[in-house]
Design a protein that fits this description.
Chain lengths: ~120, ~400
């Protein structure tokens, strides 16, 4: 599989790998995918009092493009409001990383992850 | 040491320089380029001589009569000719065929085609070690069974089936027995004179011969009949028409000659390298060997690294040329059907790596491989939410995942 330089960069130097306390009231956690399908993404966001995502962390089990998609996502959501973050489309991720058609589902998963994290945060409030 | 390191000898092998040398002598004007079917001049005669020498070299490795060897374009064609050819010829006796779920696609898809033509096929489940339970094979045999097709060595997990005992079972019932030996010739002893196997497929490029070249053993005593699948000038006793590719055939002959000579010493060397590799990897937590470790060719190691996805692992070890059972590396997006058939769950199938060792593998390469794998798996597990969950003691099977 020939990956773009951007995918390789995120894969080799993943940004914002880590875990936050999922019990923390300011933290929203989204876990999407399934081991049987070959990818599971865990995305966590830390939201400030004024509704801005001040930090994001991820862990991903999956192929190179799944790792790159989630790594890119953490960069993109930092500093965004929840509304702005929920507008991130999988097609934006796929385009930025030049994902081949067979890997577009990885970007879909990333979109699902941020939506799930936002929902988890909102459910806690 | 040169990178990347080739550890995918079951996919294909480089042509041995000694083989390439022989092949190059059969191409140009000053070489042995004639058509072996030309009976009217010396170009044809000497090409024919080279073809018959190669036929003997192939026959010698597997201890059969050279007259029992039919040239084909590769093991896929041999499998097609054997399975469809025997089924078509013997269909008046019955229309039932037995094979196994872990066979190569050349066998499985030939059987699928026969199903479309009205044959009935039983696909046996192997045991969890990849081997077929002989009692289960025997009980699948029926009055109308005409053909059993079982591979000698599995291409993914390298396990060796007991074909000689199977052949006793089929012969006693008058059933034709075909064996795909693409992955075993030159690696495991084959003695067709003292076996009751009826048909056997061979490939050249799995043992340092050229691609696009294979052979089918068709037993003469008792005689096995086949319906030809390719028609034309009546070459190869009418079983496989088409001008014989002399350079390819000579290459296959030389490759089989070398295999016969060097197989025993190579197996000792491969076993040492494979064990070195296994010893270096087995202390990594949550690793599982796929397939029986004893009834296995010396050059194969197939391991699943749990909680690490196969394709990302392959990316991390891009200095190694290996193959994976992961869906992401296949066109179909399905994980390895062989690993599924031996009862591995999808996760383990996704995270499997097949290492196959061959003639040009060195100890230094194995040591590099071990180090690289340790580092890569540490890194990917650091990234893996599943690894965290495993470490927290969460049973992943108890989690309700949203399949997508």
């Amino acid at each position: 599989m020939a990956y773009s330089d951007k995918v390789m960069d995120h894969y080799e130097n993943p940004r914002n790998v880590g875990t936050m306390d999922k019990e923390d009231k300011d933290v929203g956690t989204g876990m999407v995918g399934a081991p049987a399908c070959g990818d599971v993404m865990k995305l966590q966001i830390k939201v400030s009092d004024d509704g801005v995502i001040e930090d994001a962390k991820f862990k991903t089990y999956g192929c190179g493009s799944a790792i790159a998609s989630s790594s890119l996502l953490t960069e993109w959501v930092k500093g965004k409001t929840l509304d702005e973050a929920s507008e991130i489309k999988n097609s934006d991720i796929a385009e930025e990383l030049a994902l081949p058609p067979v890997k577009v589902h990885c970007s879909v998963l990333a979109e699902d992850a941020i939506k799930a994290a936002i929902k988890d945060f909102q459910d806690k409030q | 040491m040169k990178l990347p390191i080739y550890l995918d000898y079951s996919a294909t092998t480089p042509v041995d320089p000694r083989v390439a040398e022989k092949m190059m002598q059969c191409l140009t004007m000053d070489g042995n380029f004639g058509n072996p079917a030309s009976r009217s001049h010396s170009f044809g005669w000497s090409a024919d001589e080279a073809v018959e020498l190669a036929r003997k070299q192939v026959a010698d490795l597997v201890n059969c009569d050279p007259k029992e060897i039919i040239w084909t374009s590769g093991a896929t064609e041999s499998d097609n000719l054997a399975i469809k050819g025997a089924a078509h010829f013997y269909q008046k006796k019955g229309k039932h065929i037995i094979t196994c779920k872990t066979e190569h696609k050349a066998v499985l898809d030939s059987c699928r085609q026969l199903e479309r033509e009205g044959f009935e096929v039983t696909y046996l489940d192997p045991e969890t070690n990849g081997l077929i339970d002989l009692a289960k094979l025997e009980s699948a045999m029926r009055e109308d069974t005409i053909l059993v097709s079982i591979m000698h060595v599995n291409n993914e997990i390298g396990v060796i089936q007991d074909i000689d005992t199977m052949a006793e079972l089929t012969r006693a019932r008058g059933i034709i027995f075909h064996v795909d030996a693409a992955q075993s010739a030159g690696k495991v002893d084959i003695d067709l004179a003292n076996s009751k196997v009826d048909l056997m497929s061979f490939s050249a490029h799995k043992i340092y011969g050229p691609k696009g070249m294979g052979a089918l053993f068709v037993r003469r005593k008792p005689r096995v009949r086949l319906e030809a699948q390719i028609h034309g000038g009546g070459h190869e006793r009418g079983l496989r028409s088409g001008t014989l590719p002399v350079h390819q055939i000579v290459g296959m002959g030389e490759a089989f000659r070398i295999a016969k000579e060097e197989m025993a010493t190579e197996n000792v060397r491969f076993a040492a390298l494979r064990d070195r590799l296994y010893d270096g990897l087995k202390d990594i937590e949550e690793t599982y060997v796929n397939g029986d470790m004893d009834k296995r060719i010396t050059g194969n190691l197939n391991i699943s690294f749990n909680y690490v996805e196969g394709e990302s692992l392959i990316m991390a070890i891009k200095d190694l040329a290996v193959s994976s059972g992961s869906a992401c590396t296949s066109a179909s997006l399905e994980p390895s059907y062989v690993l599924r058939a031996i009862g591995r769950n999808d996760e383990l199938a996704h995270s499997s790596i097949r290492f196959t060792i061959g003639r040009f593998t060195t100890e230094e390469e194995i040591d590099y491989t071990i180090k690289l794998l340790h580092n890569s798996i540490d890194k990917l597990r650091e990234l893996s939410p599943l690894w965290d969950m495993f470490k927290e003691g969460i049973d992943l099977d108890s989690v309700k995942w949203a399949a997508h």
